[in-house]
């Protein structure tokens, strides 16, 4: 991935504008430049509320590809903005903050994937969308946390290399025991830090609560959960428990902003027992309103990918999108 930026003078006035005035400027610019602003569910509440669309990473890219926008401003992390570029190669895609990386995506490079494929030449490579465009392009098919089981189950082969998240791979392996799944040794630190002991301690305080966990969590946390699903799936899962009043959420703490908006009569508690103690992704939190303003005003930090990477990654994503969902 290449990030292109333009030299620009940042007027000091915009460094100190009140939040409301800054939002007004962003709204003006997005209209003038025919831009769509996307926000992942883990972004800070102000960014989520500002966005045209809020959701999970691939869903946002698909939504943006279906718009007539000329510019996509992706408030998330770098691999998400890359996916938006892959699915919308004719649109200009901007990442508002250069510090918005991803430890999970960075855990595998295309070089290490090639080495892994050489060790297991008869295995099909399934790559989680939380990966760079280069890694996607070197893979056979992609998956999301929502459709990983369906993707693996759909393969003709019984031998699978699953990259880069080993926790998601283990969860899939339990659902598809007939497949041999070799997991790459990568994790999302925000999810992997959580332990069942913390969940149990939280459950003591909320004994009637329903526990919903993301499949990037460790095995012991998943075993303690009533529901295991993607962030988008969490919004649906809560609706399956109309009598429940409290939900313990095992994913990045900002997800509770969307849950509270959707279900204002429910109580949502972080699985680690407090808001923002550990289930906090620092990369997701670097983007602020000021970054979105300068991304639009100066058109800086543009995502640029080689044509062969776009083509290869797009094929892996399209193969995934062609797989029917089990549910």
Strand percentage:
15-25%
Outline type: globular
Find the count of extended strands (DSSP E, 2+ residues): 14
CATH class of the largest domain: Alpha Beta
Helix fraction, binned, reads: 40-55%
**Major sheet: size, sense and barrel closure?**
4 strands, parallel
- Low-pLDDT ranges: 5-9
Total count of domains: 3
Major sheet: order of its strands?
3-2-4-5
**Radius of gyration over C-alpha positions, nearest whole angstrom:** 20 Å
CATH architecture descriptor name of the largest domain = 3-Layer(aba) Sandwich
* Averaged pLDDT: 93
Roughly how many Å apart are the termini?
34 Å
SS content category? alpha/beta
Overview of this structure, please?
The protein folds into three domains: 123 residues, NadA-like (Rossmann fold); 94 residues, 3-Layer(aba) Sandwich (Rossmann fold), CATH 3.40.50; 77 residues, NadA-like (Rossmann fold). Helix 2 packs parallel to helix 16, helix 4 runs parallel beside helix 5 and helix 14 runs parallel beside helix 15. With 327 residues, it is α/β, with parallel strands linked by helices. It has 17 helices and 14 strands. Strand 6, helix 8 and strand 7 form a beta-alpha-beta unit. About 2% of the residues have low confidence.
């Amino acid at each position: 991935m290449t990030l292109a930026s333009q030299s620009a003078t940042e007027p000091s006035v915009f460094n100190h504008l009140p939040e409301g005035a800054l939002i007004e400027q962003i709204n003006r610019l997005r209209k003038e430049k025919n831009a769509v602003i996307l926000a992942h569910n883990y972004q800070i509440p102000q960014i989520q509320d500002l966005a045209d669309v809020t959701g999970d990473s691939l869903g946002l890219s698909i939504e943006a590809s279906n718009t007539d926008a000329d510019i996509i401003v992706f408030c998330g992390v770098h691999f998400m903005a890359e996916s938006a570029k892959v699915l919308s190669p004719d649109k200009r895609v901007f990442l508002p903050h250069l510090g918005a990386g991803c430890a999970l995506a960075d855990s595998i490079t295309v070089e290490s994937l090639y080495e892994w494929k050489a060790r297991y030449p008869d295995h099909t490579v399934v790559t989680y969308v939380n990966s760079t465009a280069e890694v996607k392009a070197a893979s056979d098919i992609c998956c999301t946390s929502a459709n990983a089981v369906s993707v693996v189950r759909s393969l003709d082969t019984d031998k699978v290399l699953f990259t880069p998240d080993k926790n998601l791979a283990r969860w899939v392996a339990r659902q598809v025991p007939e497949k041999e799944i070799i997991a790459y040794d990568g994790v999302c630190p925000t999810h992997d830090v959580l332990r069942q002991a913390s969940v149990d301690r939280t459950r003591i305080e909320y004994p009637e609560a329903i526990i919903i966990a993301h499949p990037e969590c460790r095995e012991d946390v998943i075993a303690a959960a009533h529901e295991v699903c993607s962030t988008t799936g969490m919004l649906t899962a809560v609706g399956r428990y109309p009598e429940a009043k409290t939900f313990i959420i095992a994913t990045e703490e900002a997800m509770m902003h969307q849950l509270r908006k959707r279900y204002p009569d429910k109580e949502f508690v972080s699985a680690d027992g407090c808001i923002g103690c550990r289930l906090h992704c620092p990369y997701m939190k670097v983007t602020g309103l000021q970054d979105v303003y300068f991304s639009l005003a100066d058109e800086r930090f543009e995502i640029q990918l080689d044509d062969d990477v776009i083509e290869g990654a797009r094929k892996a994503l399209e193969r995934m999108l062609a797989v029917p969902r089990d549910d």
